[in-house]
Amino acid sequence: MSPPVIVAVVLAVLLLIAVVLLVIELRRTPGRPGVAGPAVTGPAALDEVDRALRVLVTACDRAERDFPDVYAVECAADRVVLRLATYETSAPEPWDGGGDGTEWTLSRAGRQTGGQVPAESHPYPLIASLGLHEDRRVLVNLARAAGPITLAGPPTAVGAFAQRLLTELLSGPVGRDAEVTLIGDVGIGLTGVRPERLRTAATLAEAQHGGREQQVARAGAGAVFQQLDDGRAAAEPDQPRRLVVIGADQYRAESAGRAPAGGAVLVLGEIDHAAWRFEVRPDGGLDTGALGLPIDTSL
């Protein structure tokens, strides 16, 4: 072969090698984070999560097994993922356990399986959205906190976050069995919610005895206290369904440094010795502290 032909062959071989190496690298490297679309940011995502949780009830009942210990949920356009507080390596169909026992996944195809008729309710009434991470919506099970949950940050941002969270619980499908008790006067207005699920109380002690029925138009509170209900919360007796909302100053004055018996507490404002600490960031994200759930932006 002449020198030009040899050079051309060498260049062609080198180009082919470069292309192969590029393809291998692209397969090794995860793609850029996706952007959450309306199916994740809008109300349809809550319908998907609710349906997935009710499919979970049906699947566990058919397999004659306990419900998993869920502390968080992620909803993407093509899947719903349960994050588990205790290891469960095997999952009932159509859920996929993934092998490591830390999460179960339900694909869109699984959510639409005709044989999996969703139950009428699910055992996680206090699952609510924290915000978005990349291409998915992140929700947390407030019932899993072992003690007070403090929500820190600028008062206006904290109030807006609490108002959105409470509105979702009291109007969305996931929290259909949730109950909210507002303690004192913390300045959160709630409209368009289920009035039979909303109560008020002047003190923590009164809240523990049920509180008073509250008209939706009245303003609400500024911290969230979760209390174990005496009855069954949906399908599971061990899941609290009541969320009590109280300001940080009142909580400190009335709790004597101890979490009220029967559930977790989310306090709007800074307190010491919280089980979970959330902080609203200036960029609109949320720092979830030891819980370790990344939240890039609010909803």
Integer tally of domains: 2
Distance between the termini: 66 Å
Mind telling me the C-alpha Rg?
Answer: 24 Å
Characterize the quaternary organization of these chains. Answer: single chain
Fraction in helix: 25-40%
Mean pLDDT: 79
Total strands: the figure is 14
The helix/strand class is alpha/beta
Number of helices: 7
H/E element string? Answer: HHHEEEHEEEHEEHEEEHEEE
Rough outline: globular
Low-confidence stretches: 22-32, 213-237
Q: Tell me about the largest β-sheet.
A: 9 strands, mixed
Q: Provide the β-strand percentage band.
A: 15-25%
Transmembrane segments: 6-24
Keywords: Membrane, Transmembrane, Transmembrane helix
Explain the overall architecture.
Keywords: Membrane, Transmembrane, Transmembrane helix. This protein is α/β, with parallel strands linked by helices. It folds into two domains: 102 residues, no CATH class; 147 residues, no CATH class. It is built from seven helices and 14 strands. Strands 6, 7, 8, 9, 10, 11, 12, 13 and 14 form a nine-stranded mixed beta sheet that branches. The chain has a five-stranded antiparallel beta sheet with strand order 3-2-1-5-4. The longest helix has 26 residues. The N and C termini lie far apart (66 Å). About 12% of the residues have low confidence.
Short description:
The protein has helices at residues 3-28, 38-41, 43-63, 108-111, 155-171, 204-207, 248-255, and strands at 70-75, 79-84, 103-107, 127-133, 136-141, 148-152, 179-183, 198-201, 212-213, 224-227, 242-247, 265-268, 276-280, 286-287.
